[in-house]
């Protein structure tokens, strides 16, 4: 028995990411003009509100407090926008980085993957113009990230696996969690269960950790 599917809204331009925070659903449209919008859930006549638009390709976004942090992949930077503003404007968080492709925020630190370098780096988001610090390296086209407990999980599209590392260690070492998955691009971990998206296999999978 399949659950009934109900359209929330249609006619979007290449929707590729979404996130639920509080009463709002945020979603990304990755065709020009690249736009992130939000809509209030549970309201029958709710109208989508544009949060930020006219970006280049975006690979990930996450909300921290009032700020939406966005990986501006083609622009080699991470930006943020205050979602409580009537007319939000973007601010650069860190620039001159390489193809940011996924991120998580833990406390004062934002961890992000770099697709083309194979690195996961971190920055202190309480600082202006923070300097990135390398955390782990040697991954093959890392993409989506998630965390639970002391571990950050990273989907590696080119490595066909998902790895984890203990971010509390001074010198973290990666450990493979899932192998033989064709092009994993996204990962979430909830209550010790890992959920992943494989673009090569066209599937969503789960693994008990």
* Radius of gyration computed on alpha carbons: 17 Å
Helices and strands, in order, run as: EEEEEEEEEEEEEEEEEEE
Number of beta-strand segments: 19
Helix percentage range:
under 10%
Taking the sheet with the most strands, its summary is: 4 strands, antiparallel
What is the count of helical runs?
A: 0
Strand order of the largest sheet: 1-2-3-4
Unreliably modeled segments:
none
**Which structural class best describes the helix and strand composition?**
mainly beta
Q: What is the overall pLDDT average?
A: 91
Tell me the β content: over 45%
Shape: globular
> Termini, distance in Å?
28 Å
What does this structure look like?
The protein is mostly beta strands. It contains no helices and 19 strands. The chain has a four-stranded antiparallel beta sheet with strand order 1-2-3-4, with no helix packed on it. The protein has a four-stranded antiparallel beta sheet with strand order 5-6-7-8, with no helix packed on it. A hairpin with a 2-residue loop joins strand 9 (100-106) and strand 10 (109-114). The relative contact order is 0.09.
């Amino acid at each position: 028995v399949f659950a009934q599917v109900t359209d929330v809204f249609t006619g979007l331009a290449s929707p590729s990411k979404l996130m639920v925070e509080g009463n709002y659903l945020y979603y990304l449209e990755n065709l020009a003009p690249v736009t992130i919008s939000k809509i209030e859930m549970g309201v029958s006549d709710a109208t989508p509100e544009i949060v930020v638009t006219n970006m280049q390709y975006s690979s990930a976004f996450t909300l921290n407090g009032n700020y939406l942090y966005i990986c501006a992949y083609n622009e080699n930077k991470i930006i943020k926008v205050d979602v409580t503003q009537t007319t939000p404007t973007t601010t650069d968080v860190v620039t001159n980085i390489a193809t940011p492709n996924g991120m998580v925020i833990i406390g004062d630190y934002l961890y992000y993957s770099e697709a083309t370098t194979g690195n996961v780096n971190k920055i202190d988001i309480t600082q202006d113009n923070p300097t990135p610090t390398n955390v782990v390296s040697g991954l093959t086209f890392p993409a989506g990230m998630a965390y639970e407990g002391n571990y950050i999980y990273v989907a590696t599209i080119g490595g066909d696996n998902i790895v984890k590392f203990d971010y509390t260690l001074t010198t973290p070492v990666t450990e493979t969690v899932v192998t033989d998955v064709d092009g994993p691009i996204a990962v979430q971990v909830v209550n010790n269960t890992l959920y992943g998206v494989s673009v090569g296999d066209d599937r969503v999978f789960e693994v008990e950790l």
